[in-house]
């Protein structure tokens, strides 16, 4: 079927596509948005890097839905794993051992950063982070967690409290939560503390050290190794090793939130591998099953695991280590290995970098492009010298029209789905993407960036 072909007959049984959208809109909440004007796209099928709506139109999924479907859609091996586990054992309470649990644990030992060998399975990245916070506090006997402003760590009470972006604001003042404090992110394009790399000496890490030494009771520092929805912010080479040294010297745990940056997305199994740094705790989800089923993971070091041999592990939930989520994780890892997808993301990195760099040269509205592997951001600005964005976090929360949303509406019309957040786009196609599909996605974005160019300030 041609990518832009529209079928005249609805593909749903019993309801038209319009009815599906109407019922969804009237009875469900649309997340992170004003409800007025929500008109969700009705999806009925997906395969490879494409999804199909209720009218038969196909779209290139250029951000892997929520940067999670790394294997692409309808991978046969993962689907078979779901079917097999449903036939063999649909559920077992967390206190039991299952074959799927042992198989996945064994595979994880081979792909996670070396030294992470004790696992707690969850159902999302949000509750993987909740587990990490509790483990860090139980292990250290301390309370405070230092997070960063350009961050997102989940939507439950603890994880949203540790989130730096405006999704936390609705929960304030209670939402900040006891024991959460914020420091500056590492963002060399627009340094939050006004420094310039490389002459800064990685001052943003020094700032975190200052916080640790001047705050009592710090249990952990929480970072996204490559910041996700808040801009795909990649730290300089010196940052993560320096932060690891600071945590070691101060006796503070380092938690790496790899919910989005893990599973080959950055051109390594996990982004922390790019700097050869092992955190004390690593959380992940999304790509662990390529999002076919909801699974999250909180992995800790051996020293933390040893601590709980003689200390009470005060955490758990009904769906922990759910068999239906674990065998698809086994299949996902094996498919990634079979297809060489980690290597593929790394090999495609310079191709994507070159294509996006061309956008910056061509369009005055493109302030910065940055990323690793198949994980990239395109930042929009009113002026490349001042770096002033078209919209701010406050605009998002206030429900103002965002320029990036206007542009992605146009790319959607051309059959390309791109995720946008406040004033940037996230380019993160499935790791199976072809060069031709990369060309198509970037070309469609290129075609509509004139909307931003026309609003630039000279």
Please name the CATH architecture of the largest domain.
Answer: 3-Layer(aba) Sandwich
- The CATH superfamily of the largest domain is known as Type I PLP-dependent aspartate aminotransferase-like (Major domain)
Strand order of the largest sheet: 4-10-9-8-7-5-6
Order of helices and strands: HEEEHHHEHEHEHEHEEEHHHEEHHEEEHH
Query: Total domains, how many?
Result: 2
CA(first)-CA(last) distance: 44 Å
Low-confidence stretches: 1-12
What is the 3D shape? Answer: globular
Number of distinct beta strands: 15
Overall mean pLDDT score? 95
Walk me through this protein's architecture:
This protein is an alpha/beta fold. The protein has two domains: 17-74 and 344-453, Aspartate Aminotransferase, domain 1, CATH 3.90.1150.10; 76-339, Aspartate Aminotransferase, domain 2. The chain contains 15 helices and 15 strands. The strands form three sheets. It has a seven-stranded mixed sheet with strand order 4-10-9-8-7-5-6, with helices on both faces. Helix 6 (157-161) links the parallel strand 5 (144-148) and strand 6 (180-183). Helix 3 runs antiparallel to helix 10, helix 7 (203-214) runs parallel beside helix 8 and helix 11 packs parallel to helix 14. The protein is globular, with a radius of gyration of 22 Å. It starts with 16 loop residues before the first helix and ends in a 5-residue tail after the last helix.
